[in-house]
Design goal:
Elements: E1 19-22, E2 33-39, E3 42-49, E4 52-57, H1 68-76, E5 81-89, E6 91-92, E7 95-96, H2 98-103, H3 109-118, E8 122-130, H4 142-156, E9 161-163, H5 170-178, E10 184-191, E11 201-206, E12 211-221, E13 228-236, E14 242-248, H6 256-265, E15 292-293, E16 299-303, E17 307-308, E18 311-312, E19 317-321
């Protein structure tokens, strides 16, 4: 990677991407919305100045060392000064593989290099924050930013950079939603006349299954065993406190031993700083009311059905770990 001062890039590297709020149905409104597939990958802002390139995750953490092939791709482009928004995707057998992405988060550079050849990543782009001539276009409406992005990719003509499909036809978007799976897990809607709003939930996302990213604030052991039985889930409230919202116990037996070691290493943290899990009730044993608080470092995506009183009504299903997401980004806005 080519080194560069943080001030050399056209926007601060701390610039957060525009985010989406969850909805149960796609918004409509006389052609005022643009719809795009929701890709199953790592969200990424890509910055370039000359030969210097920086890739940033939604959490703000650098991603470049984990995807050297994308650094090389960006450096090879004739455009010298720009910022784009997209999703890093790795496909295995024609389907996006989140496991393949997670395997890149490995400390050994030799391992990363090997994987970059065996399972190369691509960057699917859907927005542009800074045009190739270095002009910041955040305040321009989406329709203008989309035109700039299409022109940029047309000149780039690189197979590792792809333009995300889009439509203004809600019927087409509904078809995408029904067919979600493989490399996509839903549809994102954006207003065509709105500017890019960094860090704001100014978009709408609809998934076939309702999911939420939650912080692990604690855990319970299996009855009579020194292995994790369930994870206690939390979301940050408006006061910045971590509230307990439910649990998940769908942990594969083969994963329990390693997960127990990981969680026990995080014991001693504050756990839930807002609403905490209650103690035993007349419906539970004394043991089931006990729980271990941990440092709020781990994020997990779970599937849920209903929310009542700002809590999941039933137990949730553990879908995957989210090492790419910062715990503080796990707020109640996801399930409002």
């Amino acid at each position: 990677m080519v080194a560069a001062h943080r001030s050399d890039f056209p926007l601060p590297l701390e610039t957060p991407p525009m985010e989406a709020r969850t909805a149960e149905a796609l918004p409509e409104g006389n052609g005022s919305w643009q719809y795009e597939p929701k890709w199953d990958g790592f969200r990424c802002l890509a910055f370039k100045n000359g030969k210097a390139v920086d890739l940033r995750a939604k959490s703000g953490k650098p991603l470049g060392r984990y995807f050297p092939e994308l650094i090389t791709t960006m450096q090879s482009l004739d455009a010298k000064n720009f910022v784009v928004d997209g999703e890093i995707v790795i496909e295995v057998d024609g389907r996006a593989s989140f496991d393949a992405l997670q395997m890149r988060l490995h400390p050994a550079e030799s391992r990363i290099r090997k994987l970059s050849i065996e399972t190369p990543a691509r960057l699917t782009l859907f927005d542009m924050l800074v045009a190739p001539e270095g002009k910041i276009i955040l305040e321009r409406p989406l329709r203008a930013r989309r035109e700039a992005l299409e022109a940029f990719l047309s000149k780039a003509a690189n197979p590792d950079l792809q333009l995300s499909p889009s439509t203004t036809n809600v019927a087409t978007a509904r078809q995408w939603l029904q067919g979600a799976g493989g490399s996509t897990d839903g549809v994102v809607a954006k207003m065509l006349d709105e500017p890019y709003r960094p860090g704001e939930r100014a978009m709408v996302k609809v998934k076939r299954l309702r999911t939420a990213d939650c912080v692990v604030g604690g855990f319970r052991y299996l009855n009579g065993k020194r292995q994790v039985g369930s994870l206690l889930l939390g979301l940050y409230n408006d006061n910045g406190q971590l509230d307990h919202v439910g649990f998940t116990s769908t942990i594969a037996n083969e994963d329990r031993a390693a997960l127990t070691v990981k969680l026990e290493a995080l014991r001693g943290g504050p756990g839930f700083t807002g609403k905490a899990p209650g103690g035993p009730s007349r419906w539970s044993t004394e043991r089931s009311g006990e729980w271990e608080p941990v440092k709020p470092d781990l994020v997990v995506e779970v599937r849920f059905d209903h929310v009542t009183g700002e809590r999941f009504r039933h137990g949730t299903r553990l879908l995957r770990w989210r090492p790419d997401k910062a715990p503080r980004q796990c707020t109640f806005e996801q399930i409002a």
